[in-house]
Design goal:
single chain, mainly beta, Neuraminidase, Tachylectin-2, Chain A, five-stranded mixed sheet, 5 helices, 46% strand
Length: 717
């Protein structure tokens, strides 16, 4: 199911901040404008326009118009006044497209003649092409001094063209085979590749004078440049790393570039990188093409410190997967009062009448002191609007309203985490939990939207009352004391699993470790592994301390790869490597299943994923791998929405008011369709030559949690 790609999906100029407001109305005047990008289709042909709002970190990249069906390579995009301009390599050369990009709705793309004739409009699914293209087979573009400037690669070098009442060449760099442009103030800067190495270059004040260049930066396959202060930021991709440098502004550019850290590393071969400055805190944004998947990163700056953080996924290109012959099926609705699927069955909890829970999501199963619980995310409470989004917990009972299925007794009040400035609003949710020495520890996210991240950090908290008494009639919250921040970078979304220390090389002992599987950016991150060892000297004392405690007191170790087949553990989170690639994970569930002696990973698919809108499964004999390719368990559009079969539908498919499935829990979801997300393993039992998995799944509309079932053939190598 794999295909080879002919060219990179993006180029150095494929990302820009336009002038279109991210949100309508007065809020659009203060919010950063949307980002615009041009990306080749997944099969390497056709150049598409993408856009993403910057007013909230949870905004998705959305595909817009097809700009050029004839693109032969990555395009370059820039904003000039109220228009967007795109330059596209096509068989005849570099074509120039333009479209209105002001606050009004866009009316479509048009191909502009390089001689400044009038524009032609889009016709059907194709584009009118006329005028004389610029020569070249690759392009980078920028705007300097109000003038459009492009760098085009030709057979014997790179030419710099400017549109000054008509296009004309102004500079030539013999022997160069690639270039990227960016202005800083009134000066034009570029990185050019000659003899396999990238060098900074800037033209002299007049075309007749020679050009000058700074020291060599690095070897690499791709580079990009963006203005930064009165200088530039340069990124060079080589293998699975993208390194960055800063170049200070100076009258003479013969300076030494300063290293500015890795943009990405270890997550796949980087075919190309693009940079763009934005109004989002003044940060530089980046796109990377990593083995065909396209990711968005931003350079977070706080005082004198900066770091790169993956922020979103535009496209996940993982073509190694299989599709189960029979999809998972729904057993029952867990939360809410009455199942909204036609038939009107009571839910497994009757949560609204028993505990005041109208709707919720997630549903992570945890064990403690011989009891089983489900942890729920943003919860909406009946007649208590001040508790909006406060999280919930339920105790699992052996039987419930539906014969053969468990029951769920919700606590009548939310969870409360106290201390360490923990926030408990949207996206601040419980992730998992574990027991050590009779105490219960909660893993949760906090500080949503901090540093323009959907989820700001993960925290570790301890239950004040370790008995975790769940009472539907109680109005007293179950309280937790925040101990420390676990991560605000690579381990924000977490799944925890107990595992014998004796089975993990580098640890040992007759106690259990707590394996922490984590991801970074929400629905865009890779999966990594860390280990919390309660048997390590001082860790048990730290876990029972009043709090807060230093993060380092936990002695967490991070999987940093293997040496001669043996795991390498590091004390630094920066050394943590992805367990496999590519990844665009949000909610994750990793559990050890004794019935098959393997770890099981449940997750959902990513944006523009070739597997479709799906619940997926991977397995592995060891925490660090090797992890199998994905199996598609459930297509939540085809099987959950069931457009042709309303009686079998349990996810709202139509937003026009005609759909009997769904609920109206809060404004943002009431008038929208549903979705499938957050699959969490509930249990797994062996049945002859099959493994029967049950997992919880959130459906957005209805804003509830359902219990699913799937039969898998074994063995499962």
């Amino acid at each position: 199911m794999e295909t080879s790609r002919r060219v990179p999906m993006i180029g150095p100029g494929s990302l820009a901040q336009g002038s279109t407001a991210s949100v309508p109305g007065m809020n659009g005047l203060v919010a950063p404008p949307q980002l615009d990008a041009v990306v080749l289709g997944a099969d390497g042909s056709g150049l598409w326009h993408y856009r993403r709002g910057q007013h909230r970190p949870d905004q998705e990249w959305r595909r817009g118009a097809l700009i050029s069906p004839d693109a032969t390579g990555p395009g370059a995009i820039m904003a000039a006044s109220d228009r967007l301009h795109v330059f596209v390599p096509e068989p005849a050369g570099i074509a120039h497209y333009s479209t209105h990009a002001g606050p009004r709705r866009r009316t479509g793309w048009a191909l502009g003649a390089v001689s400044r004739r009038s524009h032609t409009a889009q016709r059907g699914d194709g584009w009118d092409s006329w005028g004389t293209p610029l020569p070249g087979r690759a392009v980078s573009a920028t705007l300097t001094g109000g003038v459009l400037v492009v760098a085009v690669t030709v057979d014997d070098g790179v030419e710099i063209w400017a549109d000054r009442d008509g296009w004309r060449p102004e500079h030539r760099i013999p022997g160069a085979d690639a270039a990227a442009l960016a202005p800083s103030g009134t000066r034009l800067g570029a990185v050019v590749r000659r003899d396999g190495h990238w060098r900074f270059w800037t033209p002299a004040s007049t075309p007749s004078r020679p050009t000058t260049s700074a020291d060599t930066l690095a070897a690499g396959t791709s580079a990009a440049i963006a203005p930064l202060g009165d200088g530039w930021l340069v990124a060079v991709a080589d293998g699975d790393r993208v390194e960055t440098w800063t170049i200070a502004g100076a009258a003479h550019p013969r300076i030494t570039p300063a290293p500015a850290g890795a943009l990405t590393w270890g997550a796949g071969a980087v075919a190309a990188v693009a940079l763009a400055p934005t109004r989002l805190h003044g940060w530089v944004q980046a796109l990377t093409d990593e083995d065909g998947s396209v990711f968005h990163h931003h350079r977070q700056v706080a005082g004198e410190r900066s770091r790169w953080m993956r922020n979103a996924c535009l496209r996940l290109d993982d073509r190694r997967f299989t599709i189960e012959p029979v999809d998972s099926h729904k057993l029952a609705q867990v939360s809410g009062e009455v199942d909204t699927q036609p038939g009107g069955r009571p839910t497994l909890s009757r949560s609204e009448s028993t505990a005041g829970v109208r709707g919720t999501d997630l549903g992570v199963r945890v064990e403690h002191r011989g009891q089983s619980y489900l942890l729920f995310g943003d919860t909406h409470w009946r007649r208590r609007p001040w508790l909006v989004t406060r999280d919930a917990i339920a105790r699992i009972t052996a039987s419930g309203p539906t014969p053969g299925l468990p029951g769920f007794a919700f606590h009548g009040a939310p969870l409360r985490i106290e201390g360490d400035r923990v926030t408990m609003r949207e996206y601040d949710v419980p992730l998992d939990g574990f027991s050590v020495g009779g105490d219960f520890f909660l893993l949760a996210t906090s500080n949503h939207f901090a540093r323009a991240q959907t989820m700001g950090r993960s925290v570790l908290a301890r239950a004040v009352d370790p008995t975790l008494t769940v009472d539907p009639a109680s109005r007293r919250p179950l309280r937790f004391t925040a101990l420390t921040t676990l991560s605000d970078h690579g381990f924000i979304n977490l799944s925890a699993q107990r595992f014998p220390a004796a089975r993990v090389p580098g640890f040992g002992g007759d106690h259990d470790l707590i394996l922490l599987f984590g991801t970074d950016a929400y629905r865009a991150g890779n999966l990594r592994l860390a280990v919390l060892d309660p048997g390590r000297p001082g860790v048990a004392d730290a876990l029972t301390a009043p709090g807060p405690i230093p993060r380092g007191a936990l002695g967490v170790r991070y999987w940093a790869g293997e040496a001669a087949g043996v795991p390498v553990w590091s004390a630094s989170e920066d050394d943590a490597r992805p367990l496999f690639r590519p990844g665009a994970f949000g909610e994750i569930s990793v559990r050890w299943v004794p019935a098959i002696e393997r770890f099981v990973l449940l997750a959902c698919s990513g944006p523009e994923d070739p597997i479709g809108p799906a619940v997926t499964l991977r397995t592995s004999p060891a925490p660090w791998g090797p992890w199998t390719p994905r199996r598609r368990l459930f297509d939540w559009v085809a099987q959950g929405m069931r457009h042709g079969d309303p009686a079998a539908r349990f996810i709202k498919a139509y937003a026009d008011g005609s759909d009997v499935v769904g609920d109206r829990v809060f404004r943002q979801q009431a008038d929208s369709t549903g979705a499938g997300y957050a699959p969490y393993l509930f249990d797994a039992v062996r049945d002859g030559d099959h493994l029967v998995l049950r997992y919880t799944l959130s459906t957005w509309n209805p804003y509830q949690v359902v219990l699913m079932s799937h039969r898998l053939s074994v063995p499962m190598a």
